[in-house]
Amino acid sequence: MSGRSGIVILGIFAADTAYTAKRLPHIAETLLGSDFKLGPGGKGSNQAIAAAKAGGKVTFISRIGNDPFGEMALSAYAAAGVKANVMKMEGVSTGAAFIFVNEDNGDNAIIVAPGAAGLIGVEDVDANKAEIENAAIFMTQLEQPLEAAVHALSIAKRAGVTTIFNPAPAQTIPDEIYTLCDYVVPNEVEVAHIVGHAVETDEQARAAAELLLRKGAGCAIITLGARGALYHSAQQSAFVPAFSAGTVVDTTGAGDAFLGGFAAALSEGRTPVEAVRFGCATAAIAVTRPGTAPAMPLRAEIDELLNSGRTL
Predict the structure, then answer these.
(1) Can you list the pairs that 146-150 forms with residues at least 24 positions away whose Cβ atoms lie under 8 Å?
(2) Average pLDDT, the chain
(3) Residue in 176, 180, 179, 175 with CA at minimum distance from that of residue 194
(4) In terms of DSSP bridges, do strands 35-41 and 14-21 run parallel, antiparallel, or are they unpaired?
(5) Which pLDDT tens digit goes with each residue over 169-193?
(6) Is the pTM of this model over 0.70?
(7) 3-state SS string for 66-79
(8) Which residues form the Carbohydrate kinase PfkB domain (predicted)?
(9) Residue 267 assigned ligand-binding role
(10) Percentages helix, strand, coil for the chain, rounded to the nearest 5?
(11) Which CATH number describes the domain made up of 7-23+34-308?
């Protein structure tokens, strides 16, 4: 990454509408919830804000509508220090997400409607080609169309930029994408979808990670919730424990927090395993707060938790 700087992220913004209740309603049933929150979200957007608050220099590529949710997005980027290379569209709504949060344990279930960001295409990537080619890190996911993600990863890989791919939400993806990825970072549900078997033990996690390497990925990192994360490459395989930062309130943005922290640490030249540890600390703080982007911790908070060594 010599001579390069910054993190470029392609993804979607979605306004998070989060409902807290005992359970999801059945069809034709109405339940009373115990809380509601509205705030900025979307995987790519969350990752961009997490990386910037963790100390990274971040550019975010996306599309939004010319509406109040779009203004929410731009305000969030301004507050976090994210450079917003975002197309504002007329006549198309900004993306939005329905989030159910279980009031007993903070677990979540999500429906995302990408809106304007669902129209992201190769033209958005080409318009930001120079920015991608000059970055230290490029990261993307699968909430925007797959074609745009593949095109951007291809540009970054050819330019020698370190690439991070978060295969989320889980879907069928072509094996060719893995050869474009220095780091593939799924969670345990997403990787189970990819490899076709459960990932409930350390042995299953290592087997899944090894399969991702055989598909062509440079390294595999599997996030495992309270079990931490597995870093697996041809040279090294290590489980990194989760940190304890307090009572878990909302796990919705945990993976995005991890990825933002990981990318920020990697862009500073930390070793991959150190960057995974930094990502675990970032996620541990985020889950003690409600919401997604608003829950992302500041750099000083992450450093304090890292120095404390409070692992689970």
Answers:
(1) 146/171, 146/173, 147/121, 147/122, 148/10, 148/120, 148/121, 148/122, 148/124, 149/10, 149/177, 150/174, 150/176, 150/177, 150/180
(2) 95
(3) 175
(4) antiparallel
(5) 999 999 999 999 999 999 999 999 9
(6) yes
(7) CCHHHHHHHHHHHH
(8) 7-297
(9) no
(10) 40, 25, 35
(11) 3.40.1190.20
> Where exactly are the structural domains of the chain?
7-23+34-308
Residue 218 annotated as binding?
no
73-91 average pLDDT score:
97
Instruction: Point out the residues that are catalytic.
Output: 256
Residue 15 assigned ligand-binding role: yes
pLDDT reported for residue 1: 45
How many C-beta atoms lie closer than 10 Å to residue 123's C-beta? Answer: 12
- Contacts of residue 87, defined as CB under 8 A and 6 or more positions apart, other chains included, come to 62, 63, 64, 116, 124
291 is in an annotated binding site: yes
